Amino acid sequence: MTSTAVRTTVTEVTVTTTVRHLDASVDEIVKAFAKTKEDMKVLENKKKALEEQIRKLMEGASAGYIDGVKRVEILNRSLSKIDRKQLQEAYPEAYAATLKTTEYTVVSAE
Fold it and tell me: How far is CA 83 from CA 57, 78, 96, 97, 100, in A?
């Protein structure tokens, strides 16, 4: 006999849109914002690539010295978190009772 477990995930998103027509002079601000977001993505990718180079050069060491001065350090840290998926599956009532909704805004520019 074969049994099938069905899990349903419900995500609710409420979007409210109000429109304001802005003066054309604001376009430079919006363009600068969009470019800055793109620049941040490029810089984050560059940072990750440089970090990877440093890790390879360190060959497992935790501190790197240049001319007798410590210039780089790799720190090991740990983070304890709740496995939300496992909690929801094992104890759905507890998950539902502790679920917290946070409202926030996001600025998006094109």
Answer: 34, 15, 14, 16, 15
User: Nearest-5° angle of CA 104, CA 106, CA 107?
Assistant: 150
Closest CA to 54 of 38, 75, 79, 68: 75
pTM of the model: 0.64
Q: How far, in Å, CA of 36 to CA of 14, rounded?
A: 28
Mean pLDDT, consecutive 10-residue segments, the chain of 110 residues?
59 80 94 96 98 96 96 95 93 92 86
Which residues, 6 or more positions from 107, have their beta carbon under 8 angstroms from its beta carbon?
Answer: 33
